[in-house]
Amino acid sequence: MKNLQNLTRDLQTDLMSCATDPYGPLAPQWERRVFSHGGLFPGGGIVITTGWSRDPSRSCNGGEYYDYARYRFCDGGISREETSSCEIDERVPKSEIYNVALSQGGLERLAELAAKRVSAQLAPKPIDLKKFRRRIEDALRKTATSDDLIAIAGLLGVKTE
Question: Are the beta carbons of 92 and 84 closer than 8 angstroms?
């Protein structure tokens, strides 16, 4: 089983794929899922489109299709599944389980922070890092909730045990 650090890294990787696909939005995006028809997404979670179809009219019939990473809640914690919009896709689906206890809001906050990190990686700006670090530390002391701190710990690879 994987932990919070692996979950955060995989979220960032999927969001980077979303942001760098030339047919996509050119920004890291994710969607909230609470329930999907047919019980395919019980318990909620999020979906990240990692690959975009060049021709959406062919996305369900074996032509060009969308690729997705689905993060959903399961008995062991959170499950990550790779899937596509093509019903006859012959690739073997990959699935991983992360041994973390997060609420829907906690998972969404983690995805939001990972998306901001990817955006920051893709948009280089000249920054006075010393001053920027002090501002971040001050903001963390004054405004961060426990969910924020857990999500940030995952982003930074800080052990939570």
Answer: no
pLDDT in single tens digits along all 161 residues of the chain: 579 999 999 999 999 999 999 999 999 999 998 765 554 555 678 999 999 888 777 656 656 788 899 998 888 889 998 888 776 666 666 788 999 988 888 999 999 999 999 999 998 778 888 998 999 999 999 999 988 888 888 888 888 77
Give the number of other Cβ atoms within 10 Å of residue 159's Cβ: 8
| DSSP states along 32-99 | EES--GGGTSTT-EEEEEEE--SSGGGTTTTSS--EEEEEEEETTEEEEEEEES-TT--SPPPEEEE-
**Domain segments of the chain: what residues?**
4-156
* Coil vs helix vs strand at 17: helix
Order of strands, sheet of 95-98, starting from the edge strand that comes earlier in the sequence = 31-33, 45-51, 67-74, 77-84, 95-98
